[in-house]
Amino acid sequence: MCDAPMPVRTAGKPRLEGWGLNLENTRFAPAEIAQLTAAEVPKLAVKWVFAYPGASRARSQPSIHGGVVYVGSQDGTVYALDLASGCAYWTFKADTEVRSAVSLDESGQRLFFGDIRGHLYAVQAKDGALIWRTLVHDHPDVTLTGTPRYHQGQIYAPLSSKEWASAADPAYSCCTFRGGIVAVHAEDGRILWTAYSIPEAPTPVGKNSSGLPRFAPAGAPIWNSPTLDAKRQRLYSGTGEAYTSPAAATSDAVLAFDMQTGALAWWRQSLAGDAWNMACFIGGGENCPVENGPDLDIGAPPMLVRLADDREILVAGQKSGHVFALDPDDNGKLLWKVQIGRGGFAGGVHWGMAAGEGRIYAPIADTEFTGEEQGEPKPGLFALDPATGKTLWYAPAPDVCTTADRPACDPGFSAPPTAIPGVVFAGAFDGHLRAYAASDGRLLWDFDTNRPFQTVSGEEGRGGSIESDGPVVAEGHVLVNSGYLFGGRMPGNLLFAFAPSK
User: Is the pTM of this model over 0.70?
Assistant: First the structure.
């Protein structure tokens, strides 16, 4: 804990907004916010390392405001850390794991975040005191994976679920969850409206061999942080696969909701016929849909990108390895679509992309997960022309996974990158955080987090895979989580803070 009380320095509008760092989800920090130049990047060194107690994964992306870092953890503890030293000003204990980033309101005085069981919290930024707590949906498998977004007095929380895993039980009555967005009043936590990714409610469609009813349609979870378009009053989200047959028309799609009412304005499906759940993975259990995959979600938030001619487009990435652009002024008309990765169950574009200075930065995972992937894997980082989708450069992922002490190592890039003027940062499954020149993809800096470190508490922690959440650059620092025990990745429990050495 910090020796001194938290200074009163969090007043004023936050300069970074939520998981995507701005309403448009482009993950670009301009110079006045980053306060880090391309020339300083090769001088980055560890300033401090913080350990999440008892954790095997670190996936709540840190938020920085006024010299304070707000971040959640696997055991449900939310921390307010001093950016300069890593000591903790206060802690708050949620009911269970906090996987989302922490969002702030326009004053910087209130924090909002979700937990793995679907609770949304509001707490005071100055001391962590609880303001309110709301269960955003009554489905028993609901979860908040994507970061809730605050805007003008409302919080927009994306609905995902664990029902894809519940379906593996042949005695489970599959499936009844629908993805969606919930709008919540920031003052008191009241639910204002709920918009579903599948408009039709699930109804009985027969019985399984145990005599339990089967339901459809279901699925299309939203596990990305919503993109907010204040000019058009739209909210954009990508959806995952359907859980039941036939696959819903809004699965693996980009959806546009009205920000005031939740009405579905338009949608653009990228892949039809994708229905899958965990019953398929364990050998074709009774609840496996006839389509049996291929499970190619749009897990990355769509980005609202401004072109050189001042037009705006929506850019989305998919686990299939595709990146595509839509016209937000023409009901999501497809403008271009390219495939840059092999794709697959754990391939393609997974958690997010970045955009800035006339480039889209798309990380490709392309890990071998099922052993049935086809084609050449292309793990690494791509820079694309936002007007055409043309590849401007490709930086293949270095393979550092040859040593015996890294049995779960993989070179793929799954976590979202983050860009600043002249530089793009990207973390990998192998635990390395790397910085590339925005102009041509030259490697500027490389740091291995997958090893033991002494932490600010005096105890030893260990890094692992960098996965699900990306680096944050603000106030002259680079912060990144390391550790992800899920899907064969390398566990860890660390938060790193880097700053240029003198």
Answer: yes
